[in-house]
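User: My instructor asked us to take a sequence, write out its structure as tokens, and then describe one feature of it. I'm not sure where to start. Here is the sequence I was given:
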Amino acid sequence: MSKTNVIEWTNVGPDDLVWACPYEDIRWGSVVVVHEYETAIFMRDGKVYDILNPGRHTLNTQNIPLLTRAYSLVMGYGETPFKATIVYVALKQFRGNFGVNTRIALAPSSPGWRTECQAHGNYFFRASEPVLFLTQIVGAVGRFATLDVSNFIRSFFSQEFASELATYSASEIFTKQREVTQKIKAGIIYEGFKQRGLELLDIKLEGIQTPDLDKLGKEDPTYGAILYNAIMKGNDTEAARIMERIETMRALGKSPAAGIWGAMIAVPQALGQQPPQPAYQQQPQPQLSPPTQPVQAKTPLERLRELKQMLDEGLITQEEFEASKKQILGEVSKG
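Assistant: Let's start with the prediction itself. The structure tokens for your sequence are:
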């Protein structure tokens, strides 16, 4: 292009963060238009020189003094056209989407019990220091392309958010979601954004899933309901005990002798109660082990009877009975 009379960022999309004017041959007297919530930065050879705020600017020695001085030292003022890159940075608020997958502790006092946690939502930010943003993020990306810059920011946010989320227990995340989110926002992520010329305005969690616990609830709704009840109450210690007993029951389940009696031992122990003892004990008699039979899935009626038996024996509370019963009946209605 032989000359440039008006330089302006046009057709700006709602998600556009940055744009570089494709023409680097700039003429003195050209007009640079900077809209609201934008700033224009003059660069040459990778170095930042001058900044233009919103308004209509006719290029002269007064509005780009640093670049003028640099050219005067090299070739004298008045050389036209001169070489420069004009980069526009949007200053409005932006929304980014994120998704993370990390491991969280089931209870702070039991770091050995951990489960998978998936979270997704939105984060809101803006460029508070355009020059710092340009040098730290756009410079790191190496291109003046919104998609690449957005992906860089998302990757940084997701990595830091996952690290912070992993410091909380499952019950804290589920029962104090907003409080946990605000603590994470005010922590290392906020400082990390600030060091890169960005201000983190807010974080909104849209969903949290624990695939391991969801799978457990489907495989054995009785234990799953009791475990979720403990987590939702914020009782980390009880949740860890229940999880330990569930693992024990899984091991017992490999034996044909494991059944309702095994459950009646494990569940009350998980709830801090004494398991019932049989009225009499038979002397063990040697016998051949029967061939292992495939474990048949219990019908909803059988599961309800077991729950009622556990309630009658005082092995679970009325609240836990009602929660498990509701879940079982819900599965029946869906089927």
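For the description part of your assignment, you could build on this observation: Residues 212-277+296-334 form one domain. Try explaining in your own words what that tells you about the chain.
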